[in-house]
């Protein structure tokens, strides 16, 4: 472990509006702790930044001390960051302002804002953003990686709807980034990850969506094959206003898990339809024909969609990973169910496939480094890792899923669902990655900014 340049780092303290936390300081464990509790982050220092000036001062100090800077809001995707002993962890959660412009249908948010705050503020004006399933995910990290929401098939990735950002580049300069200012950076931050600059404020479009028809149907896991095949066939018939996923769920018998899920193994279909009740019910009929044990579909406020996917309610020790599939054929499902179906003993809480296409399809949207997902479905699997034995079991199960679905893997992978990089599947086509590399070289030639997914990393 390199020696921590303490005097240099301590010179940062009086320059900050926020705070510098060093190993051994009070609050050290809270400051370095990620949402992913299984990741034990041990950086050289933590800066709890409050302003763009704090970020600039941190970058200047890091350069002077020969350190790197890793920006992080919630730490949902902390796993791929790797060792941080030569790195200042720059936590952004104190940069938490949210401004909604209802006239222009725009949100302008600080780097540490999570989706719950945007959804609640936007809903007051009859608007909604392109939030993912979990409302405690950071808006900036999610959007830099693409942003796959419940409105993805109608509106594309969240990154497509970024209109401007304030960033601090590795040289410590605070810059406005939009279509007219720093257009290369503006392109890179829309889906190309967080390696190019540290975002201090993000501006993006909101949409007049107040209520949708949304819910889930659940069946015993024994019916997985029949249900997943029916759902897969159904996805070929639905309009782009419907975004859905199919999943295998195994809930542990814990008190914290509400009934009727506690201790159960289920197959589920979740969907959000921007349709009225009558049209949505007609569309859902082929799924209802399978007589689900529980059917929660109902008119749902857009801001309440974070309840749908049953994501963990707070920081969790977990491991997960994902990739994309070209198809979900009978053979694909057979391969998956052979290792994760009713007969298998699998330590994964969820194995899920999200339906892509629509506005996510290549060519449907343009603008940023990643403006589409070139696959038919994206897969994410994850499990709880409370100790070394459960972590090993979860990682082995993730390896098995990887291996059996390899024949159907798409050429590119999705950044946000990648928590175990290094499998050699790129996040974008070669020409996009070349341009991302050139922009990184122009703005951060000494690689001071450390992203969870560096440009040349892959799944
Ligand atoms: C329970 C759960 C549910 C999820 N649901 C969805 C979903 O529905 N759709 C989806 O697309 N994804 C989803 N994700 C994945 C999620 O989008 C990624 O994990 C994303 O990276 C999280 O962003 P964050 O800022 O919360 O995490 P962090 O770990 O804080 O940040 C991830 C990375 O983003 C970059 N970054 C963060 N802040 C900045 C900044 N200010 N400047 C520059 N770079 C920055 C950094 O490189 C950082 O390492 C989910 C993840 C979990 C664990």
From TrEMBL:
Gene3D superfamilies (alphabetical): 3.30.465.10, 3.40.462.20, Uridine Diphospho-n-acetylenolpyruvylglucosamine Reductase, domain 2 (3.30.43.10)
Record has Flavoprotein as a keyword: yes
Presence of keyword Flavoprotein: yes
InterPro entries according to UniProt: FAD-bd_PCMH, FAD-bd_PCMH-like_sf, FAD-bd_PCMH_sub1, FAD-bd_PCMH_sub2, FAD-linked_Oxidoreductase, Oxid_FAD_bind_N, Oxy_OxRdtase_FAD_BS
Coiled coil (residue ranges): none
Ranges for domain FAD-binding PCMH-type: 39-209
Cofactors: FAD
Family statement drawn from the similarity comment of this UniProt entry: Belongs to the oxygen-dependent FAD-linked oxidoreductase family.
UniProt protein name: FAD-linked oxidase
Source organism of this protein record: Planobispora siamensis
